[in-house]
Each structure stands twice: as C-alpha cells, then as structure tokens.
Design goal:
protease; hydrolase; 291 residues; Pept_M48_protease_HtpX
Length: 291
C-alpha cells in the first residue's frame, strides 16, 4: 500500500482554517471595538508566549511529559524501528524519546518534519510485540508527515486566547468602568468564539486520527498490527489506576489513544472511538488482501 495524499484531510483542514479565519476576523474586530487596552495588551502578550511555545514545542512537550531523549546505545531496537519507518515514510528521522510510565501510549510533537520527536512509554514497549509497536510508531510518523501538530497548534491559537479572556473576564471587567458594557460584550463574544472553535477543532482532530491510522497502514503495510495494538492499549489503559491517569490527562490530545474520561469525556474527545478505528483498519486490511 503506497502513501497517497489524503485529500479528505486536506479539504477538512482548509475548510476548518477558513471558517476559523472568518471567525477570528470577527473576534479581532470585537476586541478592538469593545475591549480596553489592558485586554488587548493581554492578548498580545499571551499570543507572544504561544508563538514561543509553538517554536519550542518539541522540547516543551517532551519535558512536560517527563520524556527523556534516548540514544541508539540505550534503546537500539527502538531507534532501528524509528529509522526504518522514517525511511519508509520518506521523513527525516525524528528525535526518539521514552517516558517512564505504566500507561501504554505514544505521541509525536514538533513544529515541522525537521524538528519532530516521537515518544513512547515504557508501558507501551512492555505491552506490544514488534509489529504492533511498529504500527504505533508509524501512526505517530504519519502525524508528522501530515503536519498535524503545526495545523492543530495554529487552529487552537486564538481559541485559547478567547478561552483565557472568558476565564479572566471578571478580573479585567471587575469594578466600576466606563466601558463595563463593552467588556461584557467582548467576553460573551469570546465565549461564542471559543465554543465554535472547540467544535471545529475537535471535528478536525478526530479525522486526523483516522488519517494517521491510514498513513500507518501505508507505511508498514500491516493495518492489522496497528488494529491489534489499539485494542491492547485500550485494554491496558482501563487497568491503569486513576491516579496515574490524572497525572497525564492534560496531554490527552497527543496520545494515540486518549485516557478514559467517562461518557462526557468521550463525547468531546479529540479521538474517535477505538472500535471505529479498528473497523477502518480491518477494512484497509481486506482492501490490501484483495489487490
């Protein structure tokens, strides 16, 4: 199975970005018209921090997850797999990192293909066989090839600003102010912008997981191995104590399978259900066998 451009993903990215662009133009107009200078200054400062965070996203994400960049001497088999799969995906070899965690999972980070990192947990390496581990690594490399981290960071940039304005609106709008009414209008518009952005970004995020699964199948030629890995990971995550899960829940969007979070959490999850992903991979397996 050869790697093919995912036009479904590209169209969804374009439509989502276009809708977010229109939404943010309106948002910026409201901020300019109704907000006091302190709010605009806050938005500019926060935007500057976000750009710095994006530029150093690989280093910051690895540190926040407690991931340690490892050498080929420390994990020779893991490095060999990443290098081989990167060549098959026509990608530069990313940095390789390991997280000492019981939670079986993996993630990719980095602002572009030349500044990427792929991390796996020790729990993942203990849980999966080599073909399954290759499938998971290939899934993360597909995210890198599709530039998902860059797209999702840009897509969520002003949504995060809108959320912060809503969250801290009472602080900025508190007390007596000649512009109290304007501040409240801007806060309400910020809330609306955040809700719409949240829905659009979640829809794009779920589709990108399907796209990465298809990409992994193209890289390895073994959709069934990734399907098996997803089922194993899902089963093992359910056995992990809630305390361990809470420590890593903030990084849910980066993981190959999100941590359990109840019915409401699944409704607003960044990932589609494991069952739907496995079903897609089995369909791909049948297609490949028919060729």
């Amino acid at each position: 199975m050869d790697w093919q451009p995912d036009w479904g993903l590209r169209v969804r990215m374009f439509v989502t970005m276009f809708l977010l662009f229109v939404l943010y133009i309106v948002f910026a107009g409201v901020l300019t018209a109704y907000m006091q200078g302190s709010i605009l200054l806050f938005a500019m400062i926060f935007g500057g921090f976000s750009l710095v965070q994006y530029y150093f996203s690989d280093t910051l994400t690895l540190k926040s997850m407690g991931a340690k960049t490892v050498s080929a001497d420390e994990y020779p088999q893991l490095h060999t797999s990443v290098e081989r799969l990167s060549q098959q995906a026509d990608l530069p070899k990313p940095k390789v990192a390991v997280v000492d965690s019981k939670v079986p999972n993996a993630f990719a980070t980095g602002r572009n293909q030349k500044n990427a990192a792929v991390a796996v947990t020790t729990g993942l390496m203990r849980t999966l066989n080599q073909d399954e581990l290759d499938g998971v690594i290939a899934h993360e490399l597909a995210h890198v090839k599709n530039r998902d981290m860059m797209v999702m960071t840009i897509a969520s940039f002003l949504a995060t600003i809108a959320f912060m304005i809503v969250r801290w609106g009472a602080f900025f709008g508190g007390g007596r102010s000649r512009n109290q009414g304007g501040i409240m209008v801007a806060i309400l518009v910020s809330l609306l912008v955040w809700i719409i952005s949240y829905i659009l970004i979640r829809a794009l995020s779920r589709y990108r997981e399907f796209a990465a699964d298809r990409g992994a199948a193209a890289i390895t030629g073994k959709p069934s191995a990734l399907a098996s890995a997803l089922m194993k990971i899902s089963g093992e995550v359910d056995k992990v104590p809630d305390k361990d899960l809470r420590e890593e829940a903030e990084m849910n969007a980066f993981f190959i399978i999100p941590l359990k979070s109840g019915i409401v959490g699944r409704l607003f999850s960044t990932h589609p259900s494991t069952e739907r992903r496995v079903e897609q991979l089995r369909d791909l397996e049948r297609e490949m066998e028919a060729l």
